[in-house]
Amino acid sequence: MNAAMVTPDGRRTARRRAAFAGGMVVFLALAAIAGPILYDTDPNALDLTQAAAPPGAGHPLGTDESGRDVLGRLLAGGRVSLAVGFAAVACSGLLGLSLGALAGLGGRRVDTIVMRFTDAMMAIPALFLIITTLALFGTSVPGLVIAIGGTSWMGLARLVRAELLSIREQAYVEAARALGARPARLLTHHALPHLLPNVLVNVTFGVGTAILMESALSFIGLGIQPPSASWGNMLTNAQSYLYSSPWLAVYPGLLILTTVVAVNVLGDALRDAAEPEARA
Amino acid sequence: MTAFLLRRAAHALTVIFVVCTATFALVHLAPGGPAVLADPKLSLEEQAAIEQRLGLDRPVAAQYALWMGRVVRGDLGKSFLYEVPNRRAIGERLPNTALLAGTALLLSVLLGVPLGLWSAVRRGGLVDRVVSGLAFVAMAVPTFWLAIGAIFTFAIAVPIFPAGGASSAGEAGGFMDRLRHLVMPAAVLAAVTTAELLRYMRSSAQTALQQPFVRVARAKGLRNRAVAWRHVFRTALIPVVTALGIQFPRLVGGAAITETVFAWPGLGRLGVQAALGRDYPLVMAITLFVSAAVVIVNMLMDLLYLWIDPRIRLDAS
Q1: The whole model's pTM is what?
Q2: How high is the ipTM of this complex?
Q3: Which residues of A94-132 are buried (b: 16+ CB within 10 A; e: fewer)?
Q4: Hey, which CATH number is domain A20-36+71-274, 1.10.3720.10, 3.90.230.10, 2.40.50.100, 2.120.10.30?
Q5: For B172, which DSSP code?
Q6: Is A112 on the interface with B (CB under 8 A)?
Q7: A-contacting residues in B 255-284 (Cβ below 8 Å)
Q8: Which of B45, B74, B227, B263 has its CA 20 to 30 A from that of B296?
Q9: Which pLDDT tens digit goes with each residue over A200-230?
């Protein structure tokens, strides 16, 4: 390891990056929450006389092929994308934490069963499992959240299990146990605080992955259903009008990219702040 | 070595078993239950007859055994939409997907591994900074948006490649024609995997560079390039092969998206269309097949370990 990386300076730049990326994520979330209130247009209102209008008065970013206001749809779509992203991560976080804890604390037999199941889930292409689920259960926002969350918990489960197994051997846990601490107290007072930074990093990256998955599913028609806007399904229409109105394909994709980059930078910075020596 | 291979084979079987069970469970949990698998175009009597023939009136455990039995024999059911056995529908599209995913995988390895090694050796240099930045963006860009961008740039603005399909009408089978159709989807699909492999290779090569044997090689007076390729490369490759195993299912999922955008007649696009058309038997058959294929490819990739990591071969003797 390079000595220069462990200096307080490395930590400070990591903090600065975390603050910048965090600010970006907060800004995007605020725009998604407050945007549709401040910018009061019906994102689903059709106006064929104004179809595919370039940016101008009344429509700051123009209109799509059916005359719907692009800015209004981007804001409405952002709400959906961020909500599904965060909800899916909450779902996978819960699954990952509980299955990881089960494997790490449940003894050898339970550990083997849970980990074989985890390995199997990792080997299955998630997209196919998700489209099977959505085809059988129908497409709905909760269904989407469960399908994405239910296929993305494996990394976290492995992480939690590995951490728990190593924490169990630490001297301070042994000391606490010798002092008569019960398993529940060991978990909440000793294991969880130790786990938290790594879980936070993992979960942050998960948000980006979940947003990408939601947009891809909406793009192929199995996610958010029209007329409701999402960044993914706005691009489905944009592809059909690529010859006549290519600009329609720009903003939704750019917003997905910006959001995921912001989330990933935040994740990177959090990781550096949590363990500066692991900086790549 | 035999123990290593047996362990991998057992692992592969477990995965396939979990996939089969999960698929079976999904069908039984779905609204309407397994009856959704009966063709909606049939009359009620015919449906009842089919349900009886399929054993849907029997206990769940018996149905499970029956289903497993059929899957083991390779019977994957029949598609509603295409009215052919799912096995045939899959067989027809498989070569296209294998071509696309195989090309993308090859591209990613050929680009990601050397660039990752270079970035690690010349850390902080121009190549490292440019390539790492690109990789960071590539991992955050939606595949389908990249595909749309590629279509706009190279099929509409500067029309040098066809916008979609696997071959031109009337020219099917010509090598150059197929190649021209393959370039854009393969490049788009390779982007994410290349970025991931690059990052893995960069960090594992960095670790390898800290090893004592590298210092010995340097002390012997070997030049940087020789140290990198002869000593660091192979050591650093081991975690990358593991990463490749993790990336492969994602690559196959990405192929479904890429195929959809480029109208590439492959397995992924077939699966997406089947899901949109509520052709349950076909979606499930494809999911089962693709998962099994991924597991088998992963197992073959494990053979790479034998070549790369001498410790495994040493264990055998």
Answers
A1: 0.86
A2: 0.84
A3: ebbbebbbbbbbeeeeebeebbbbbebbbbbbbbbbbbb
A4: 1.10.3720.10
A5: T
A6: no
A7: 256-257, 260-261, 268, 271-272, 274-276, 278-280, 283-284
A8: B263
A9: 888 989 999 999 999 999 999 888 888 888 9
